[in-house]
Write a structure and sequence with these properties.
49% helix, Rossmann fold, binds thymidine-5'-diphosphate, 271 residues
Amino acid sequence: MGDYTSELRKLSPRGFPPSTQALRKPGRLAATGRPGLGRRCYDAFVPTLARGKLITFEGLDGSGKSTQLERLAVALRAERLPVLVTREPGGTWTGEKIRQLLVDSAATALVPTAELALMFASRAQHLSEVIQPALLQGKIVLCDRFTDSSEAYQGGGRKLGSDAVLRLHGILCEDVQPDLTILMDSDVVRSVDRARRRNRSRTVGTSDEGRFEKESRAFFERVRNTYLAIARREPERVVIIDARGSPEETHQQILEAVRRRLKLKTADNGS
Ligand code: TYD
């Protein structure tokens, strides 16, 4: 994960106000389709600045999202677009400390509510310190996981429900929404086997990052079903990409989705 760390070093939050509140206008809400929640349209709050784009990658462990995120970053940078790559949990010094605890398979006593709270602690710090400043700088932020992960894993997998997650997002993350979410869909057995193999080879002699990968097949089925429910609920934001094709086919599908949804130029489509 050295890439994320070097990306973080490139972005200094210094020079930005500690909060972006001053740039926001109160009150304008756009419909989200989520019961009981207003979705703040971020563009409405930063009307005079060229705001960047937040693209999130989601999917089961081992779905190949991190590889595809890096490939998209390369393609966008080839077009001289300013790209910031980051991840959750993590993305800041504080968040990476929280991540160590969350993924450590020795943390067996962590209860689902504490797990959810830690995910949001990492996210709140990440938004304030990294994501919002980068968006204000006009960057394209590629984030490996965001609140959909909490809804799928803690809401679905741990059975805390979507409502709790969406409420916390509204309170702790000012309800900031991605401009586009790439959902890498794959079957559970295939993804999780891949993640477990990767974890075994990656963590020889270091700390074990496999806490979630120890979960049951039923847990990951709930995670996947929740992801698919989010995609059905918010089709304008979430694009489902079949992660079972070759890496190149998958990359092309993602480029096409980014071009179509965000009207960004990419090296491969020449538009
Ligand atoms: P990640 O490093 O993306 O795992 P992988 O590379 O295996 O896909 O994320 C670490 C784990 O954290 C992953 O198992 C999913 C979990 N997670 C949650 O349960 N909730 C969340 O909100 C986030 C961001 C991650």
